Amino acid sequence: MLAVIAALAVGIAKGGLSMVGMISVPLMALTMSPVTAAGILLPVYIISDIGGLIAFRRSFDRRVLVTLLPGAIAGIGLGWATAHLVSDDAVMLIVGLIGAVFALNALIRPRLGAMRGPRWRAGTIWGGIAGYTSFVSHSGAPPYQIYVQPMGLASGVYAGTTTVFFAIVNAVKLIPYAALGQLNPDNLQVAAILCLPAIFGVWLGLQLLRIIPQQLFYKLITWGLLLVSLKLIWDGAAVFGA
């Protein structure tokens, strides 16, 4: 049941409500290893990406993608190279702290979040962090959001840019995941079943995106970021308690 809910969340994220997908690995990690959960969910993400790419094929910002992707690919490579050195708890804690600081700043001091456009240095840094954390636990949304949300993109363009970015990131991750043995037959069998609720989730996310006003949309993803970040901090703090 948790796996079905996680797959549904992945689909909703690909339908435009990107932060929803961050609960997928934490949900499944309640009953299995986070590494196993990530391996099962990667094919589900990729199948859902196809639906998202079809839906948002004309609604994305190329400039944002160009500044993010080089760093993201480097971050995935770093994650692959250090896969056996960094614990899942440590990564969850770092991602949670980054996301929580950004969300709290946006909620408490919203006027300080001045609009800004794509920038190479910032895009490379946040793209690298997003690629690394996405590789480890499919939790690249907070660093991505830190870079992109202040640009004030229209909700449809924001959702489309997010979908295209993570579709490329997930495709690149197939190579190291396969090399690390996470795409084994058992995981792929479970993933094939979970693709069904994920595809339904893409449709559901598109419907929700159409009825949610843009200002409310940004408030929802900011609150979503904060809640998920606090959950990641709680889980990641286990690295000190163990």
Q: What does this protein structure show overall?
A:
The protein has helices spanning 2-14, 24-28, 34-55, 62-81, 88-108, 120-137, 141-148, 155-179, 185-211, 214-236, 238-241. The protein has 242 residues and is mainly α. It has one domain (2-241). It is globular, with a radius of gyration of 16 Å. The mean pLDDT is 82.
Shape: globular
Mean pLDDT score = 82
Total strand count, please? 0
Task: Name the helix and strand elements from N-terminus to C-terminus, one letter apiece.
Answer: HHHHHHHHHHH
Radius of gyration: 16 Å
- Could you tell me the strand content as a percent range? under 5%
Number of domains: 1
Give the secondary structure arrangement, pairings included.
Elements: H1 2-14, H2 24-28, H3 34-55, H4 62-81, H5 88-108, H6 120-137, H7 141-148, H8 155-179, H9 185-211, H10 214-236, H11 238-241
Helix pairs in contact: 1-3, 1-9, 3-8, 3-9, 4-6, 4-8, 5-10, 6-7
Characteristics of this structure?
11 helices, single chain, 242 residues, globular
Structure described in brief:
With about 240 residues, this protein is mainly α. It has one domain (about 1-240).
